[in-house]
Specification:
The complex is a heterodimer of chains A (164) and B (253). With 164 residues, chain A is an alpha/beta fold. Chain A is 24% helix and 24% strand. The chains are: A alpha/beta (164), B mainly alpha (253).
Chain lengths: 164, 253
């Protein structure tokens, strides 16, 4: 029999300690990639969804989840990956958005509607000086999930976690 | 073909398109014209390879012979690859790569939109995931076609050369064969005639903005990839891609 394990329980607390290797301030819960946690007999089944199909962090995240669970005494853990519904930055938590900004990455602005997928972003705020007088340098940044922007006021280039 | 065989074959076509395009784009790593575009090219390579992985994993499952994604990518020879000839064409100069990418992205954009409606849940989930990434790709490559086509005399001429060189490989993307018809009838595959119409419309629009003359859609087209008959280039790509697994079978990181 499979039972669903609700949020705010011990296992979810363990998952909170697993971070994105590319953006280490974000936990996988902040990212919104943990879709479901279930228990079947002894086994814990954790369902995650990739942010981007080719994101190399996903394999590392799966390994790290297993390691964190093992450390907490759960030896039988299975990681399942689902593609639908497709991950969106709308699932990024409020705490996650604050942490991103503090880390120097501008959090996604608005929702992942078609316009933002096409790069027609609204004002992106500079994470350093808070100016909204910024421009996009490149749609593609240092990782699949980020675009490269620059602040026209403080001139600092910065990463923008793009709407997806 | 049974439904299972047909689906397996269909998945290989899509996965091989993505993998070979991803491999070609990866060859730009460290060679892009400027840093931002180098990163754009390799970002897109990653998306293509990611999509290929999802498709190969599912193909292995459908085939039921316990072949993994790696087995399918690393242990098939040229004649067992079913990608279109377009994606294996050499990178050439930046403009050649842009033109090739624009034709392929436009195809993917309309194809994967349709594939989201597939009755096959896994295929439709892969399509739903991929379409977001493909949207970025098409925006990028279409912008560059316009910028270079409507650019300087030299860039315009280079785009014209790329267009002349690659045009004969576009027909194969859009021409349905028996496999397409079979899976379309089952509600699994995509209607290539519909995709073809949308593709031609978009290409016409972008080439016009790029001040490049529209070639004849009915001119003679090269084909063969979908049947495993490739240009000489694929062998070289695979020898690069597969070397490690061929020389050291089963090697892992």
């Amino acid at each position: 029999m499979t039972t669903i394990i609700n949020a705010n329980t011990e296992i979810w607390d363990i998952l909170e300690t697993v971070t994105d290797p590319e953006v280490p301030v974000l936990s996988i819960l902040d990212l919104g990639i943990v879709r479901k946690v279930e228990q079947e007999g002894e086994e814990i089944i954790i369902t995650i969804t990739p942010t981007y199909t080719g994101c190399p962090a996903m394999d590392v995240i799966a390994i790290n989840i297993k390691a964190a669970m093992q450390e907490a005494g759960y030896s039988k853990v299975a990681i399942k990956s689902v593609l639908s519904p497709a991950w969106t930055t709308d699932w990024l938590s409020e705490a996650g958005r604050r942490k991103l900004k503090a880390y120097g990455i501008a959090p996604p602005v608005g929702s992942s509607d078609k316009n933002s997928l096409l790069g027609e972003t609204r004002e992106v705020q500079c994470p350093r000086c808070d100016s909204t007088n910024t421009r996009m340098i490149s749609q593609f940044g240092s990782t699949a999930c980020k675009a490269l922007h620059q602040c026209n006021d403080c001139l600092e280039p910065f990463d923008y976690f793009k709407c997806h | 073909m049974t439904r299972k065989e047909a689906l397996f074959q269909y998945l290989l076509r899509l996965a091989d398109d993505a993998l070979i395009n991803g491999q070609r784009l990866s060859q730009w790593c460290g060679h892009g014209p400027i840093l931002e575009q180098d990163m754009a090219l390799t970002n897109m390579a990653l998306d293509q390879i990611g999509r290929a992985r999802s498709l190969y994993q599912y193909a292995g499952e459908v085939e039921g012979k316990s072949r993994s994604e790696d087995d399918l990518a690393y242990l098939r020879d040229v004649r067992e690859y079913y990608n279109v000839l377009l994606v294996e064409q050499p990178n050439g100069h930046f403009g050649t790569t842009i033109m090739r990418q624009f034709f392929f992205d436009t195809f993917n954009y309309f194809f994967y939109q349709e594939l989201q409606k597939s009755k096959d849940e896994t295929l439709s989930a892969i399509a739903e995931k991929s379409i977001k990434e493909i949207t970025y790709h098409l925006r990028w490559s279409a912008e560059w076609v316009v910028r270079l086509g409507d650019g300087t005399e030299v860039s315009h001429q280079k785009m014209q050369d790329a267009l002349d060189e690659l045009w004969i490989y576009t027909g194969e993307l859009l021409k349905p064969d028996e496999l397409d018809n079979q899976l379309l009838a089952e509600g699994i595959g995509v209607d290539l005639n519909k995709v073809g119409e949308q593709w031609r419309q978009k290409v016409k629009e972008v080439l016009e903005r790029a001040t490049l003359p529209l070639p004849d859609f009915n001119s003679w087209m090269q084909s063969g990839g979908r049947k495993g008959v490739h240009s000489e280039h694929l062998g070289y790509i695979l020898s690069d891609l597969q070397f490690l697994q061929r020389a050291y079978p089963g090697q892992e990181w």
